From TrEMBL:
Keyword Transmembrane listed: yes
Lineage: Bacteria, Thermotogati, Thermotogota, Thermotogae, Thermotogales
Signal sequence, start to end: none
Keywords recorded for this protein, A-Z: Membrane, Transmembrane, Transmembrane helix
Record carries keyword Membrane: yes
Protein name: ABC-type transport system involved in multi-copper enzyme maturation permease subunit
Chain ranges passing through the membrane: 12-29, 72-89, 110-131, 151-173, 180-201, 221-242
Length: 247
């Protein structure tokens, strides 16, 4: 387990620093953002509606839309890809998988790598989902913890779903580049197909960014259940690949 953590420590700390900087380049600048958008009000009305700037004057709408609905939300699949892509493929690429298999059985190796990665992903998503609440508490701004928790569910389930897809690729391929490229292709393809109305369910971004929470004020329960079930199926399928793969 210690070895796994050492391998992902740099990626985890880098993501922590990067998203913390991203948050603090956004949260303290509500008035600055509104002023910029007001100066370009005609273009803003054309693309996002007439009342968008007025809505941003409310702290809760500003931080929820700009953090979950834009900056952090857009990077959640990429964050999951970065955490997962080298887990198994690096062992094959560096030919260290033989050493690992000489010390532990395949099930133990799979569980240690996968569970630790899921735990790290869980910590990152949890911290960055509730960072707006911590900031709001310190700066005496009102932000509903219930609403933040709804976005947290969408963020966590969305991250786990994309993590499970990357796990399949990283167990299947023998180098670290192909899991990244394959995951990026699937992400781009599903997002593009989701733009077509009959195939909109392919677009996981609509779920991750919390459209249903903005529109209806509630978690998309059906999509949450489907993504969760699919995630466990993909993780199990990746175990079967790893279990049967020749070294």
């Amino acid at each position: 387990m210690k070895r796994e953590w050492l391998q992902m420590k740099v990626r985890t700390i880098s993501l922590f620093i990067l998203f913390t900087i991203l948050f603090f380049s956004l949260a303290p600048f509500q008035n600055f953002t509104i002023n910029i958008l007001t100066e370009n009000s005609e273009a803003i009305k054309k693309f996002v509606g007439e009342n968008f700037v007025e809505k941003l004057k409310n702290w809760d709408y500003y931080i929820l839309s700009q953090w979950f609905g834009k900056n952090f939300g857009q990077f959640i699949p990429i964050l999951a890809i970065i955490i997962a892509f080298p887990l198994f493929s690096r062992e094959y690429e560096n030919e260290t998988i033989t050493f690992l298999l000489s010390r532990q059985n395949r099930k133990t190796i799979f569980l240690q790598k996968t569970l630790l990665s899921i735990f790290v992903l869980f910590i990152l998503i949890t911290y960055f989902s509730y960072l707006p609440s911590i900031y709001s508490l310190i700066t005496s701004k009102e932000l509903s913890i219930l609403t933040v928790s709804k976005f947290y569910i969408h963020s966590l389930v969305g991250a786990f779903f994309w993590f499970s897809i990357v796990i399949v690729f990283t167990t299947y391929f023998n180098d670290q580049v192909k899991p990244i490229l394959s995951s990026a292709v699937v992400l781009g393809l599903t997002t593009t197909l989701g733009l077509l109305k009959p195939l909109k369910f392919f677009n996981t971004y609509k779920y991750i960014l919390g459209y249903s929470i903005f529109e209806k004020g509630k978690v998309d329960l059906t999509y949450t259940i489907v993504l969760t079930i699919l995630s466990f199926i993909f993780v199990y399928f990746s175990y079967l690949i790893f279990k049967e793969k020749e070294v």
